[in-house]
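Tip: read the tokens left to right.
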């Protein structure tokens, strides 16, 4: 299963979500889940932001090799589940053909339809990055709970 996380620049939120998801998949033995990320306004090849890198070091998330990718139709087509950080990201993904497999990450994780976005820490201080990462760690854990519960042959119990 290919899970794509989408934000604006693909240097903060979606990069962190991807790194958290890689760690979560490994910890759960869900090696068939392949996390990736992209941005709706990304500059191809940009590294993770300094704040994301620093919080990544604190949380043992390796973002050193991360390079941003501009979201395009090919990336959307090859993804099975697309989890966006904000409503405008969902709109862009759906315009590229992702309708039916795209959700706000918080709504998907919490099984709600509140339309809640993940706060963008870009331009903020280290505490902003920590707060966003705290939320992403919780949300991505819930995403994996849901993926596990919806697998064929699973009774739905965790």
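Filled-in amino acids:
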């Amino acid at each position: 299963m290919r899970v794509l996380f989408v934000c604006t620049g693909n240097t903060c939120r979606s990069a962190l979500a991807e790194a958290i998801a890689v760690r979560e998949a490994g910890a759960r033995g869900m090696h068939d889940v392949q996390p990736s990320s992209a941005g709706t306004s990304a500059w191809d090849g940009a590294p993770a932001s300094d704040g994301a890198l620093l919080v990544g070091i604190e949380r043992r998330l390796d973002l050193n090799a991360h390079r941003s990718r501009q979201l395009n139709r090919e990336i959307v087509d090859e993804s099975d589940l697309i989890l966006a950080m904000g409503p405008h990201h969902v709109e862009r993904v759906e315009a590229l053909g992702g309708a039916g497999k795209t959700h706000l990450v918080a709504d998907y994780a919490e099984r709600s339809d509140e339309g809640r976005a993940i706060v963008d820490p870009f331009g903020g201080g280290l505490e902003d990055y920590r707060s966003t990462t705290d939320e992403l760690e919780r949300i991505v854990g819930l995403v994996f709970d849901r993926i596990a519960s919806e697998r064929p042959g699973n009774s739905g119990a965790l």
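The chain has a mean pLDDT of 96. The helical segments are 13-28, 50-58, 73-78, 87-98, 105-110, 126-149.
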